[in-house]
Amino acid sequence: MPAAIFVIGAGPQIANAVATLFVKQAGFSVGLSSRSATNLERYKSLLPEGTKVATAVADANDPASCVRALEHLKSTLGPPSAILYNASSLSLGKKPILEYKPEDMEKHLRTSAVSGFTVLQWGVNNVVKDEEGRSALLVTGGGLSFQPRDGLSGLAAGKASLLNICKAFRVECPQIHVATVIVKGFVDKGDPYYASSVIAEEYWKLYAQKEDEWVFEVVH
Fold first, then answer.
1. Are strands 53-57 and 82-85 parallel, antiparallel or unpaired?
2. Which residues form a coiled coil (predicted)?
């Protein structure tokens, strides 16, 4: 059975580029999860022809649904060697911080931090090494974790929390490669440096590292 990568927060940009690169580099099978079954079929079609793919609907605002999705993907493809947590609360929209209600901030934190924590915890207990002895739990971070922008305080808070959750896993679970790619620009908006395919290379480099070479954060 080929090694598998599971993607929570599937999409047509970074998530698709990472999954595609893992397929091309090492023949990975791919488990995709997002909120929409219709979108999952579209994302599935973007992968290289012949890729073994499984899908599962999950909403990152509901951490339990992420676990159900992971268990479904595992039952279909076997345990993963890589997991990418790529979910974002950007779809919740922009709002001035003085207009936030507590429940608005809770939604952002559930999507980024709580579900991210839940996926990483599941990954620590389920990830397996591939034939080359490699495995990794990979997370898409954002520059907002360093410096918020107007109207995006919820997203910034979630990304900052998620970054520190990743660090906590590295402290308490040093046997697992938990790595974050912190993307500080607008993806696929014309700047080739921020093209999905270029950013995806960062994830593969992290995955391919030997244990004594592990890097835990990359700022791109």
1. unpaired
2. none
